Each structure stands twice: as structure tokens, then as C-alpha cells.
From TrEMBL:
Type I restriction modification DNA specificity domain sequence ranges: 89-275
Originating species: Finegoldia magna (strain ATCC 29328 / DSM 20472 / WAL 2508)
Entry protein name: Putative type I restriction enzyme
Keyword DNA-binding found: yes
Keywords, comma-separated and alphabetical: DNA-binding, Restriction system
A GO MF term: DNA binding
Gene Ontology BP annotations: DNA restriction-modification system
Protein family per UniProt: Belongs to the type-I restriction system S methylase family.
Chain ranges passing through the membrane: none
């Protein structure tokens, strides 16, 4: 009963969050663009209402069944077995990847290294198809893409992608990263250093399993090499996985998919809201973004304070260094939200990001609410000039962007009252973005708590009618 109470409570929480509607004043075109997302949200709401009802019925049946036999009510007492993939229900099987998949392929399945080099040429300009890489996933598939022509696309026929396929990086520091192929406006093909897999029954179930603790542990068990970690296709095909009955696979996948869909919906809404904020910025300041003045005439970012990962005290505060994601987490911040950060070193030096929560600025510079009430204006100003900031990097072996580089950016003569007006206009948009990000953190935490319990059978879904 405890596992049902946990899952029911999680569903009730998510259901209530979905029912909450935020009223935001947006231009008509923004509302029209959000219409399809609202329809999807209503669909998710209905799914969670049905799921909650089924939990209630299931819980009632289980309570009533205490006075009845196992034979009359089905499997009430879960029995487990210890296997190579962890403890799982007795009704689940363990098989090799090759026994439960239709396709396991990679880039080199298309020919020898010599033939690949002869027939496949990479291009920076748009062409027939995009090579889907781990770096594209890390960039949220927003570019900059690598393209191939029609001849190369057909030559790579064994690794064509159509959207939704499970992709696993099999070479490099991020070996074992699992993601789904997106749906792009271009044709797509699998890039080197990754494996694509398609399962016979339920891709969604195994996508979640491979991302979970046991799946990642199994992937690590087939990795070889220290300087350049990797695993090969043959060892992956022989890797063991749990095989629940198909109906249970579907139920588990549906529960986890519903959470992911809500996260994706929030991300889509946030993208739209930010586009509106930038549209307002461009409308107000189109003639004054550039000029004879400098950013430093008004404001210069502060430098962060270095904090090594080994010195961080475990906590929930992101430590912003040179990467796109937090370097680690700490128990205190050195900024006040909202705050924008500018990565200082490394390949991503100059990357501008906005945080709705306090962060520890480490190998980065920042502009926070203690420095100005117009953080959103400066975020729009700097983010709209992201390419220009990247181009200002100094140093070859280790690129850098310092506060002085930001201060030297030219800008026009923008009056303080115009900046304040922009802040007033867009604050509701950015506050809604922040609320959605916070909700996504809660949703991800819920999903990550449920994932191992569902994937090990600890939460029994057999009596839940989805």
C-alpha cells in the first residue's frame, strides 16, 4: 500500500499543478502560438484525472482484498528475484539487448572508415540532412548543426533517423548519455560516436530504464578505456535488460511519459514567452542597440568567486562556471535573483544565462538584482548579442570572457526610463518562465524518485488501469 500512496500523492500533486492557470498579458500572435500547447495541457490534465481515478479504484480494491485470497484477487503479494540487472519481480524476465530489439546500429555500420571518408563530407551550410550528435542534444537542438548532402545521406542508409529513436553516446567523457532523436525540419542521420537502438515492444520503457540507475550501471559495465571511454556495438547487444510483461512496460512508460510531457510543455511555453520578451526588446530598441556609447557607461558585470567542486558544501544552489550547465551545487549563493551569468572560461566562454534563483557565480561574471533592478533588460541586451560576445573571446588554448569585454560592447543612447519601461513590460513573462522552471525541477525530482521504484517493480502497476 505504501508504494500506491506514494504514487497517488505524486499524481495528486501534479494534477493540482496542471489545474493552475497563469493569466499573462501577451500579444495576440503569442496567444495563438500558445493555443496548441494549451490543448496539449488540457489533454494531459484529462490523462492525469483518469490516472488518479484509477489509483483510487485500485487502492479501494486492494483494501477490500485483504479479506480475500490471492487466487480470487490476483497477485497481491509481490515476489522478487535477484538478477544481474537488480532485484525484479518474479514475473519479469532477463534477456540480452539483441533478443528484444529490432535494430542496433551506428555510423560505422554503413561501411569501412575509408569508404565513409570518401562518401561523407561534413558541411556547415544547410543541405540534405543533419547529423544528430551528442553536442546537438546538449544544445537543445538549437544548432549549430553539421549537414551532409543527398549522396552522403543515402550512403548512410543504415543509420537514417526519423525522430523518436533512442540514441546512446558510446565514446568520450559523456559515454552512456541517453536521449531521443528530435523531429527537425531537415532529414536526419546518426553521427559517429553513438548507437541507435529500436526495441521490439516498447521503446519508451527502455528509454527510461537506460536513463535510470540500473540502466546506467549496466552501460558502465561494458565501457572500456580510461583516456577515451567507449563501448562497442557487440557488447551493447549482449548487455542484459529486464523484460516485464508488455502491459506492465506500457503502464510504467505512460506514467513516466506523462511527467516528461508536462516538462516538455513547460519548456515550450517558456521558449514562446522568451521570444515575446525579445520581440518587445527589438521593437523598443531596434535603433539604439548599437551606437557610440558602451555598456560599461551604465554597468559592468561583477566577477564571480572561484569555488572548486571539492570545496562545495552539498546543497541546492547551482555553481555557475565555464560550462552550459552548473559545475556542481553548493549550500549558499553569492548572487541575488534574478541574476544573469556570463561564463568566463573554456569553449563556452561568454555564454549568457538567466537564473530565477540565486546562484554561486564561480568561473563566471554576473549582473544581479543587487546591482540593478533591470536584470531582464541586460539579459535581453546581452543574449541578443550572444554571437558578438563569443567572438570577443581571448586566448587560444583556453578562451576567456571577462567583465571588461562586456563593458566594451558598444550600445546606443538608451534612456533610463526606457529601460525601466521594458522591465515593467517583460517582468510577468520572465516571472512565468521562472515559475515553470521551478515546477520542472519538482516534476523531475518526482520522476527521478519514481523511476527506480517503477523500473524494479517495487511499485506494482499490474492493478492500475491506465
Amino acid at each position: 500500500m505504501e508504494h500506491l500512496k506514494m504514487l497517488k500523492a505524486s499524481v495528486q500533486w501534479l494534477h493540482l499543478k496542471i489545474l493552475q492557470n497563469r493569466i499573462i498579458s501577451l500579444p495576440l500572435d503569442a496567444m495563438l502560438e500558445l493555443k496548441s500547447k494549451k490543448m496539449m495541457e488540457n489533454h494531459l490534465k484529462k490523462r492525469w484525472q483518469d490516472l488518479l481515478l484509477n489509483f483510487q479504484i485500485c487502492s479501494k480494491n486492494l483494501m477490500n482484498s485483504k479479506m480475500k485470497s490471492e487466487e480470487s484477487w490476483g497477485r497481491l503479494v509481490m515476489r522478487y528475484k535477484d538478477t544481474e540487472v537488480g532485484i525484479i519481480p518474479e514475473s519479469w524476465e532477463v534477456k540480452q539487448i539483441k533478443e528484444v530489439t529490432e535494430i542496433v546500429t551506428d555510423y560505422v555500420a554503413n561501411g569501412s572508415f575509408a569508404s565513409l571518408a570518401e562518401n561523407v563530407k561534413y558541411k556547415d551550410e544547410p543541405d540534405e540532412a543533419v547529423l544528430i550528435r551528442l553536442v546537438d542534444y546538449n544544445n537543445d537542438f538549437n544548432g549549430k548543426f553539421v549537414f551532409i548532402d543527398s549522396h552522403a545521406y543515402e550512403f548512410l542508409g543504415k543509420s537514417k533517423l526519423f525522430g523518436g529513436e533512442i540514441i546512446i553516446s558510446n565514446v568520450g567523457a559523456k559515454v552512456g548519455t541517453v536521449f531521443r532523436c528530435p523531429t527537425l525540419k531537415y532529414k536526419m542521420s546518426l553521427a559517429p560516436n553513438s548507437v541507435m537502438v529500436k526495441f521490439k515492444e516498447n521503446d519508451d520503457f527502455y528509454f527510461h530504464w537506460l536513463r535510470g540507475y540500473n540502466g546506467q550501471s549496466m552501460l558502465k559495465s561494458i565501457v572500456t578505456g580510461s583516456a577515451q571511454p567507449k563501448f562497442n556495438k557487440t557488447n551493447f547487444r549482449e548487455m542484459l535488460v529486464p523484460v516485464p510483461p508488455v502491459e506492465e512496460q506500457t503502464k510504467i512508460a505512460n506514467i513516466l511519459n506523462s511527467i516528461d510531457e508536462k516538462i516538455d510543455l513547460n519548456n515550450g511555453i517558456n521558449k514562446n514567452l522568451e521570444q515575446q520578451a525579445f520581440a518587445i526588446f527589438n521593437e523598443m530598441f531596434v535603433d539604439s542597440i548599437y551606437g557610440e556609447n558602451f555598456v560599461g557607461d551604465i554597468l559592468t558585470p561583477n566577477r564571480g568567486k572561484g569555488l572548486l567542486s571539492k570545496d562545495a558544501v552539498p546543497g541546492n544552489v547551482p555553481v555557475v562556471a565555464g560550462g552550459l550547465e552548473p559545475a556542481t551545487y553548493h549550500n549558499q549563493s553569492n548572487t541575488v535573483a534574478p541574476v544573469l551569468t556570463i561564463s568566463a572560461s573554456g569553449a563556452n566562454a561568454g555564454y549568457v544565462n538567466l537564473w530565477n534563483i540565486p546562484v554561486w557565480s564561480s568561473d563566471s561574471s554576473f549582473i544581479d538584482t543587487n546591482m540593478t533592478e533591470n536584470v531582464y533588460f541586460w539579459y535581453a541586451m546581452l543574449k541578443s548579442r550572444q554571437s558578438e560576445i563569443f567572438d570577443a573571446q581571448t586566448g587560444s588554448a583556453q578562451p576567456h570572457i571577462y567583465p571588461k569585454h562586456i563593458a566594451r560592447l558598444p550600445m546606443g543612447n538608451i534612456r533610463p526610463d526606457e529601460i525601466n519601461q521594458y522591465t515593467v513590460l517583460v517582468s510577468p513573462l520572465f516571472e512565468a518562465i521562472g515559475a515553470n522552471k521551478e515546477e520542472n525541477l519538482s516534476l523531475a525530482s518526482m520522476r527521478d524518485a519514481l523511476l527506480p521504484k517503477l523500473m524494479s517493480g517495487e511499485i506494482d502497476v499490474t492493478n492500475i488501469d491506465l
